[in-house]
Structures are given as structure tokens and as C-alpha cells.
Amino acid sequence: MGKVIEFPSKAIQGMAFLEEGIRNIMASKGENEEAIALTLETLREVYRKYGDMGKQHFSLKLPPYISEEHIQLISQQITEGIQMLNKEHAKVINQLASELVLTKVELTKCKAALNKTD
What we know:
Layout: H1 10-28, H2 33-50, H3 68-117
């Protein structure tokens, strides 16, 4: 059996799900379309710039005298460690992205409020 390829990719599905959730939450809180659009564009920009930053990978050359069993064990342990680091990096990136988005939205609201008083 061949490999199944999903369309759209899980990453695109995940971003669409996230965008829809943010749109619904912001709309339910009375945010206008401009604030929602700014939030979503900032989110996309952050993920374009930094989304792959936490995805670590590398090669490791092992000596030929190590058994296949030991190679598999080493590989498994390294893979698990890298996956743990990738998850931690993703959490940090998500937190920073959220804070940046909220900051930009609040800044835009403040600017709009100042322009109304002028």
C-alpha cells in the first residue's frame, strides 16, 4: 500500500482551524473586521518567519562496530529528545506569536482612539 498524502496538508488545515477559531472568538467579543484581519495577518506573518525555527534535525555518523540493535536504540532516544525539544520550541513560538498579535491589535486600537479624539 502506498503512502497517503492529505490535501490540504495538516499544517494548512491546522492554520485554517486556528484562524477560524480566532475569527469566531474576536467576533463574539465585538471586535471589528479590521482588528480581526490585522490579528490574522500578524499570525500568518509570525508563522511564516518563525514557524520552522523549532524544527531541529541533524545527522549522526556512528562507528561500524555498533550493532544494529544499539543503533536503533540510539536513534529512538535521539528522535524522542528532538521531538520533545521541537514541542517546547513550538510552545514558545506560539506564546510569542500570541503576545505579538495581541500587542499589535491593542496598538492599532490605541491609534484609532487617538485619531478619533483629534
